Amino acid sequence: MAGGLRSSTSHSSAGDGGRIELSDFTVRVADASDTGRIAEIDAACFSTPSSIDSLESVVGSARVRVLVAECVGPTRPGSADPRSAVVGHGILWYAADEAELADLAVHPAFRRRGVAAILLDRLIGEARGTGVRAIFLEVRVSNDAAMALYVGRGFRPVGVRRHYYRRPTEDGVILRLDLTSDESARGSR
């Protein structure tokens, strides 16, 4: 697929609570036809998901990069359906020489397969290629899995936004990735 990053993994879904077998997926730039699925994934992942209207306004915008991870092959337990489906997405906003990772989400059935890492690495690489010097994001203080992913890619805590998240109310940790350092180049694999 043009502009896509292809990755292969193989995981058995037997005995793992109905998790999906992910045999192959591609990362590509989102288009307008993806906004409904992105909204569904947001609703499954976040207590305050993005609306379809807000997603439609950013997909294709010159100041925003929206990537999707698309599974090729079975997308439901026990399914032999060969069609592909969007299983995750990342949204990066650009402002001058900085960017904000506004959203990184993977459908719960496709987690722990490396999809978020692939999306994040691709977004970091694209930001670096456009001359961005730093990427910022907020993450729930209790989201240990996301924190581990971000810190593993070189993001460092730079502050806390008190009561930033709702349902439940929780602090948000502000993370920053310095794209001008040698450490960040090693961290983004």
Task: Write up this protein.
With 189 residues, the protein is an alpha+beta fold. The protein has a domain at 5-134: Aminopeptidase. The protein has helices at 35-45, 52-58, 115-129, 144-152, 182-187, and strands at residues 5-8, 24-29, 64-72, 84-95, 98-106, 134-140, 156-165, 170-178. It has an eight-stranded mixed β-sheet with strand order 1-2-3-4-5-6-8-7, with helices on both faces. It is globular and about 40 Å long.
What are the salient characteristics of this protein?
189 residues; alpha+beta; Aminopeptidase; 8-stranded mixed beta sheet; globular; disordered N terminus
- Fourth CATH level, the homologous superfamily of the domain at 5-134: Gcn5-related N-acetyltransferase (GNAT)
| Uncertain parts | 1-22
General shape: globular
Major sheet strand order: 1-2-3-4-5-6-8-7
Distance between the termini: 22 Å
How many β-strand runs? 8
Question: What is the class of the domain at 5-134 in the CATH system?
Answer: Alpha Beta
Provide mean pLDDT, rounded. 81
SSE ordering: EEHHEEEHEHEEH
What is the CATH third-level topology name of the domain at 5-134? Aminopeptidase
Structure classification: alpha+beta
Number of helices: 5
Radius of gyration, whole Å: 16 Å
Q: What is the correct CATH architecture of the domain at 5-134?
A: 3-Layer(aba) Sandwich
Helix content: 25-40%
Query: Beta-strand level of the residues, as a percent range?
Result: 25-35%
Largest sheet: 8 strands, mixed
